[in-house]
Each structure stands twice: as structure tokens, then as C-alpha cells.
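Allow me, if you will, to draw on your knowledge of protein folds for a short while. I have a record of one protein: its chain in single-letter code and its fold written as C-alpha cells. I remain grateful for any guidance, and I place the record below:
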Amino acid sequence: PAAVSKWIADNDADLMQVEVASADKTAPHKAVAFRGLAERLEHVPKPSSRLRFLSPFDPLIRDRDRLKRLFNFDYKIEIFVPEKKRKYGYYVLPILEGSKFTGRVDLKMDRKTSTLQMKGVWWEEGVRQTPARTKAFDQELARLAKFLGAKNVIHM
């Protein structure tokens, strides 16, 4: 848009051209960044390696094209997809481990019975379900259940 081009032109002395690598093997994405980016990145802490379930509305997830390009993770929320056409489930949450998306899980909270239902889990191609990963998954499931006030967790 014109406003972006104008802002870049007005701030040209403070900016530099960069290329952002794509995990999906497409050409790098051209962008601009403030000068000194490399030095600032040296001080960014490493991401937590903890397994996490992310909301479909998390800022990292919202831009589906960027998510695919940067992480090679193809995600679509299926709440508006007819049930018979869903690939995964109604409210599937992406699974993030460190800086990699390793799977997705379909959960439903039954408020009447205070039960968190795990309807399915799908691991990305090449992701092995190791004892350590299973333990981390169960810990995240328990953390979410506690946050939601679930008294029970069932695997369906």
C-alpha cells in the first residue's frame, strides 16, 4: 500500500533490506528491517522447548500464509467447515514444541460435566511419538485442563 511505501521512504536511513528464509522451500521473502537487527537478534532468548497448544487466534497462527511460509505448517481452523468435510476437527489447536509445529490436537470442553475431551491428535510427518513427547503432551493437556477448570480429562 502507498502508506507503507511512504513510511519506508521516510525512514530509509534507518532501514536495510533483508530476506526472510522460507521453510516451505519457496523463494526468500524480501522485507525491510531496522539497521542493527543482527546485533539485536544476538540477545534474543532461545524459545522455550516446552510443548504448547496454541489458540487458532494466536498472532503466530492468524496469518496462515506466513505460518506456511516460515514454519511449513499448513493450518486451517475448521469451525465453519461442514463436519463431513473436516480433515481434523471442529476446534483443532496447533502443537508447538520449541520453534517447530509438531502436530495438532482436537479438544472439546464439556462445561456441564467439567470434562476436557481429547477427540484426536495428529502428529506432523516425521514427528515420532517418544516417551518424552508423550509426557510433555500429557503435561500440557493437564495444564490446559486446570486452566479451563476441568475436573476430568478423557481421550475419545
Remarks:
- The chain has a mean pLDDT of 93.
